[in-house]
Amino acid sequence: MLSKDQIAQRIAQELQNNWYVNLGIGIPTLIANHVPTDVNVVFQSENGILGMGPFPFEGEEDADLINAGKQTITAMPGAVIFDSATSFAMIRGQHINLTVLGAMEVSDQGDIANWKIPGRMVKGMGGAMDLVASAENIIVAMMHSNKRGQSKLLRQCSLPLTGVKCVKKVVTNLAVLDITDKGFKLLERAPGVTVEEIEKATAGRLIVEGDIPEMEL
Amino acid sequence: MLSKDQIAQRIAQELQNNWYVNLGIGIPTLIANHVPTDVNVVFQSENGILGMGPFPFEGEEDADLINAGKQTITAMPGAVIFDSATSFAMIRGQHINLTVLGAMEVSDQGDIANWKIPGRMVKGMGGAMDLVASAENIIVAMMHSNKRGQSKLLRQCSLPLTGVKCVKKVVTNLAVLDITDKGFKLLERAPGVTVEEIEKATAGRLIVEGDIPEMEL
Amino acid sequence: MDKRVANAKAACEGIESNMTLMLGGFGLCGIPENCITELVKKNVNGLTCISNNAGVDEFGLGLLLQKKQIKKMISSYVGENDEFERQMLSGELEVDLIPQGSLAARCYAGGAGMPAFFTPAGFGTEVGEGKEVRWFNGKPHLLESALTADFAIVKAWKGDRFGNLIYKGTARNFNPMMAMAGRITIAEVEELVEPGELDPNFIHTPGIFVQRIFQGKDYEKRIEQRTIRQRES
Amino acid sequence: MDKRVANAKAACEGIESNMTLMLGGFGLCGIPENCITELVKKNVNGLTCISNNAGVDEFGLGLLLQKKQIKKMISSYVGENDEFERQMLSGELEVDLIPQGSLAARCYAGGAGMPAFFTPAGFGTEVGEGKEVRWFNGKPHLLESALTADFAIVKAWKGDRFGNLIYKGTARNFNPMMAMAGRITIAEVEELVEPGELDPNFIHTPGIFVQRIFQGKDYEKRIEQRTIRQRES
């Protein structure tokens, strides 16, 4: 079973050279720490920066330089600052190569729910609805089950949707899965996790074909 | 009867302090030479400059600094350069206080035709359609009649339209006229021109109420 | 052309209860601190505030929320604010949540005279309920409308008396679009400079969009999430 | 990330006959001179060119017109070009005339993933024929669609290998929107600089919109209307 950091590590393997990448809050943020040394990617943060660098050293925080999670950041050489309209022009216009975000639920058709729980305080969707509606390549990073042990990979989402038929791949603490016309297709198992365990933890349609390799981290 | 330069001079009297003004090609361009000294206006050119200054001195022409008529220009202190989308955002968003342009025909409902003559080479509307469709305050500067002596102030335009019900005022070599629900309302006569001459030269509905003063230049 | 006013008080003249305001900023970054303070003093209420976020409890728009001056928030994300949550759950505060990109585009459209446009964000979700759907390039899109405001209040780094503005870093965010979309736009700046000091080639908000400008003071620029990394020793 | 290519030839690789190209510039100001020369050499034809203007007889897109490489022009104004006129009147050349602001907005929309929007320009004129009309705020508007292109070719003043661009003066014009709207965007620049030399706060076209960049040469920058004033003696 993977830790959150290992989920990020596995997703980092998907990164390709010269990609522009938008990372959501939570597990996706950790991916920046695992970019392979031979792969050059540029991180976009939707509040208006391309070429986001690591957190600043203490004493070098700049209140005028934050990411979409409102964290103080730095800018890499060659970075660009822009306004919110331009930022979402990049997103909506499909200029971003990969979007990684967390989710509360994902359906086996690629629907995603990650912004609202009825009866609880609703904080808002931020940029998530724009990201999922526009991106061609969306990976969801999340735990396979919620805190009550219920599967987050469902036949249909039960929570209000963030986007429909948009997620392409899911990486959880148990597995890597593609979303296909016929449901979740199991690609890889987390080290030490069996196909049976994944089947048990997946409420949506699961396709298991042939030997499922263990992921390499 | 006014010269073209005097038409520009008369329109310049309409300028108000702190206005942003877009001047079309032809007579409107001459207005810049007649801005009253106590009136401060900023000229926009729709190819992307606010704060357009006079033509450059010889030897100081910059190929990268032109107006919408493709003429070399200068920039005033406090000028701003922007792209075409932003330029027309200003225009469409009604941030420009006054638009002055030439016309082939104007109807007594405020329709304008100034871009196309059937059977002749059509050069295109440039920014004129955006300007007339968006501006709240449009003055047409033109001769009262065309070269064949026919009135250009008509009941209906005969040429393909540039915009409908948009012109607010017309200043010609003969008169100043507002466009009202009931047609052209005569406001001022050019020096030495009689109301009868204006009536004769105007094919559209003309409203003459009371004494019509001679314009002061 | 001189759009300078003396201070936040003069800049906010004419802002009345029940008006719609746009306020720039993302989180606490790039918010018009001086004008927010003035709005609290001015004690106008029943406000509809269009702002990506709603501040925190003790800062930013949170200050207006504490005094119950806001009737409705139009935002994309409103977390980190207990008083907001209390008012929202009790029904005192209306909240219209809009996808962040749609919010940015709707402000831009308002300023640019485009009354409506199609965007994919929100199709198939609550956001799409009741909205016109049309398919383009094999994908469903929602028709979204432009937003404007009685006053837009933005914060810039530097500006001149013509209203030309430049922003610093990610404090830019929503400020440029909101500046375009205000019927009256107020800009507070950290530094007022002489016309000509800002390079015409590198101005973020052309002065035509700004009606009033003043040099603000005592900027706190509170940091919401101070994150740092350790120096390698 | 290194988007540099050696020259115009390498930059134009993959441009084929019958493709749709966007070309930046207003009149002869800010046009991609090097790539236009390369397109002439390359002898591709049947091109659809989206460009505000069509050059003059001996320069700019006029060079492609002379060799009959263009099938269709999508522009707002096409005067000052005898060969253009001849081909248009003879029916050899299709011409789609679009209001300049709609052209700019349609390119922006193409790059920004907004497939359609409402604009007032052209209502009640030939431009509006066959287009959907809708009233907003008491005024009629036309539904206009986004434009994209197989290749967008833009000219900038300076750029870096990430594709970040800045433009000089009114040579900016249509270049930024077209850079956004190309499936592949080629930028030719007067000066290639190192990443970090362009201030992140003042970049006109973020590199994400650009796929290939090279330093052009021998810019003629022809002036179409050389207008001057006399020095007072």
Largest interface: B-D, 53 and 58 residues
Q: How are the strands of the largest sheet of chain A arranged? A: 4-3-2-1-5-8-10-11-12-13
Radius of gyration of chain C: 18 Å
What is the mean pLDDT of chain A?
96
Q: Major sheet of chain C: size, sense and barrel closure?
A: 8 strands, mixed
CATH class of the domain at 8-102 and 148-215 in chain C: Alpha Beta
Name the descriptors.
heterotetramer, A: alpha/beta, Glutaconate Coenzyme A-transferase, 10-stranded mixed sheet, 3-stranded mixed sheet, 13 strands, C: 233 residues, alpha/beta, 8-stranded mixed sheet, 3-stranded antiparallel sheet, 11 strands
How would you portray this structure in words?
The complex is a heterotetramer, with 2 copies of chain A (217 residues) and 2 copies of chain C (233 residues). Chain A is built from 5 helices and 13 strands. Chain A is an alpha/beta fold and 217 residues long. The longest helix of chain A has 9 residues, at 4-12. Chain A has a 10-stranded mixed beta sheet, with helices on both faces. Chain A has a 3-stranded mixed beta sheet with strand order 7-6-9, with no helix packed on it. Chain A has one domain: 3-Layer(aba) Sandwich (Glutaconate Coenzyme A-transferase). The model of chain A has no long low-confidence stretch (mean pLDDT 96). Chain C has 233 residues and is of the alpha/beta class. Chain C has a domain at 8-102 and 148-215: Glutaconate Coenzyme A-transferase, CATH 3.40.1080.10. Helices cover 21% and strands 27% of the residues of chain C. In chain C, strands 1, 2, 3, 4, 8, 9, 10 and 11 form an 8-stranded mixed beta sheet that branches. In chain C, strands 5-7-6 form a 3-stranded antiparallel beta sheet. In chain C, strand 3, helix 4 (82-90) and strand 4 (94-97) form a beta-alpha-beta unit. In chain C, helix 5 packs parallel to helix 6 (175-181). The longest helix of chain C has 13 residues, at 100-112. The mean pLDDT of chain C is 96. Chains in contact: A-C, A-D, B-C, B-D, C-D. Chains B and D meet through helix 3 and helix 4 of B and helix 4, helix 5 and helix 6 of D.
